[in-house]
Amino acid sequence: MIDESGLDPTAAPRRPDPDTAAAPTGTRGRSREPIIRVRGLVNRFGDQVVHEDLDLDVHRGEILGVVGGSGTGKSVLMRSILGLRTPQAGEIEVLGIDARSDDIESRRCIERSTGVLFQDGALFSSLTVGENVQVPLREHHRELADSLRYELALLKVKLAGLPADALDKLPSQLSGGMRKRAGLARALALDPPLLFLDEPTAGLDPIGAAAFDRLIRTLQQALGLTVFLITHDLDTLYAICDRVAVLADRRVVANAPIAEIEALDHPWVREYFHGPRARAAQVAKASWDDGQ
Ligand SMILES: Nc1ncnc2c1ncn2[C@@H]1O[C@H](COP(=O)(O)OP(=O)(O)OP(=O)(O)O)[C@@H](O)[C@H]1O
User: Fold this and answer.
1) Which of 44, 49, 50 should be mutated for ligand 1, with most atoms under 8 A from CB?
2) Which is the closest atom of ligand 1 to the Cα of 72?
3) Atom of ligand 1 nearest to the CA of 76
4) Residues with CB under 6 A from ligand 1
5) How far is the CA of 9 from the centre of ligand 1 (A)?
6) Whose CA is nearest to atom 28 of ligand 1?
7) Closest C-alpha residue for ligand 1 atom 27
8) What is the pLDDT along the chain (292 residues), one digit of tens a residue?
């Protein structure tokens, strides 16, 4: 059952909130309300255990950075939350809906509520950018007239910071950064409250990456989005993430604002957050704040 807030009022927490020690409050419309709730997640591939008893909360209105070494299961976690992979065990709720449910209406509701930018953009190469953005509109809003669908696609393309003439181009005619923006436009097609980004700045030059970070923050604030952002990019973490979830040892070992993460006594965290690249990102963050 879903109430007006989009949450299931009957859902009783089976396990405690895993990150009460790390409660951000108040700013930018963030709240303690979990919009995504994962408990006891288990993912295995044959003998390989990727997640074991993993818990995670993502709060409404925040940008959560998800980090961890290569192969720690960030993408598998995202795919599990989106219902694209069936885990071996665990509970996953998205907007109060059981993401593991086979119920078609539940599945479609989660699909309508989530926009996803996959690492490679995942655009259809034979369709123009405009046609790509219209794909989810065609699937979920068959009632829309072609002209309105076109106008909506144009609006999303502009929101993603692309010029109007990008609408009629094929993905192969765009730069890597523009393809990311086209993928973002498609992710925003249905006005989802939840945005999933898998390494959005990978492959971009530093200026393009910083511009993409600013775009994500601006859109998140303007549209009130909640963002689940997988990244290896320290600049992104420092510049725009409200909290950071660290995947290690097959689970989320911490989920907190970056200042608290930096202070953790964990070998991967020490290496990642206290190396020269982290120091450079802290300096960049200071100049970002000055420019705000
Ligand atoms: N379909 C699959 N079949 C078998 N193993 C898989 C499959 N998908 C993922 N894995 C394994 O699960 C582990 C976690 O993969 P995942 O892609 O989630 O890692 P990641 O943290 O996103 O890594 P990276 O930072 O390198 O992108 C890896 O060891 C990967 O090989």
Assistant:
1) 50
2) 21
3) 18
4) 45, 50, 68, 70-76
5) 34
6) 71
7) 70
8) 333 333 333 333 344 444 433 333 334 445 577 899 999 999 999 999 999 999 999 999 999 999 999 999 999 999 999 998 999 999 999 999 998 888 888 888 888 899 999 887 688 889 999 999 999 888 888 887 888 888 889 999 999 999 999 999 999 999 888 999 999 999 999 999 999 999 999 888 888 899 999 999 999 999 999 999 999 999 999 999 999 999 999 999 999 999 999 999 999 998 888 876 666 666 666 666 666 6
The residues spanned by each domain of the chain are 34-95+196-292, 122-192
Neighbouring residues of 98: CB distance < 8 A, sequence distance ≥ 6: 91, 92, 106
| Superfamily per CATH, domain 34-95+196-292 | P-loop containing nucleotide triphosphate hydrolases (3.40.50.300)
